[in-house]
Amino acid sequence: MPDQLTKLAYQTMQQGRALLGVTHKEVSTRLMGLLAPDGTPKTVPIPPELLASLRQAMDSLHERDWQEAEQGLYPPSLLFDAPWLDWASRYPMVWLDMPSTWSRRRERNVRDLPSSVDLDNYPDYYLQNFHHQTDGYLSDHSAALYDLQVEILFNGTADPMRRRMLAPLLRGIKAFADRPAGQVRVLDLATGTGRTLRQIRAALPKAQLVGLDLSSAYLRQANKWLSQLPGELPQLTQGNAEALPFADASFQAVTCVFLFHELPGEARQNVINQAYRVLEPGGVVVIADSVQLADSPQFSAVMENFRRVFHEPYYRDYISDDIGARLAQPGFEGITAQSHFMTRVWTARKPR
Ligand SMILES: C[S@@+](CC[C@H](N)C(=O)[O-])C[C@H]1O[C@@H](n2cnc3c(N)ncnc32)[C@H](O)[C@@H]1O
Questions:
Q1: 208-231: pLDDT as tens digits
Q2: In this structure, which residue's CA is closest to atom 3 in ligand 1?
């Protein structure tokens, strides 16, 4: 059972992560203002009351993260799991990458992708530099920086936010409690570099895990991270979440973290329909993504700034989208949603 000292260590570490993230963004924004002023986006001012309520929501997220570890949903060691040395060695690359980000921003060039990529293999909406990312999602360079960039962007809360899908996932697969744990199959859509699968592996050490993503470069990075873990290596498959290469009813759970805000509405619906198809009756889907205007109107300025600072072409549409209605379309039932800091988590069940 984790003790108060460990809790203090966790809280202190999270404060340190937040400080590092805020400092990095402050310094890089000033540098951009000096060196690339015409690329600097105009942001909405964040009033002190909003900052205070963001801090409060962040504290609640950490408290929930701590409590769920204490309840045994996942090992407390997961709270401290981060590749610090690796990130430290990659950090200079984040700075070296910035000038090309600034120039794309200045030139409003959002389709600056590696020439080696066969564009016919991807849906058109995907062929962009999301968050002005060098090479979009389509190179090892991009995959090498992604986790660290997300760590900085969310001030160290990315994993605590991802972990909020674990409680509903564990609750959902209780429907299959009569099966040996090794026969439960969980599919993580848009698995990226595997950070979500890493959280799931810690909570479900015996389950069969499968990760799918459109980017083979990101899957290569996921393979590197995940092969360091004990237990069976998750199966990693390159593919489009809108047309899953899996049989009907072949999974007991489907998860999807931080994908929906990067999809046009029609693609969001296609992904939900596919999740429904590959789930066994009684199976659970858990989707985590940005909070939305309807559930978190107090954070609307933060959502607006996110859209202005990063190239996120579908975000404005996403924050007004009714994901509950989309889940109901193919027939999902028991649809619930909860917000944790900047993340909203939807859970739903395919009827038996
Ligand atoms: C913002 S990242 C999220 C990655 C990961 N889930 C995480 O928590 O960090 C979005 C991911 O979605 C993938 N992606 C985007 N559209 C996709 C699609 N239609 N099918 C499969 N993967 C997709 C991208 O390649 C990228 O890895």
A1: 999 999 999 999 999 999 998 888
A2: 258
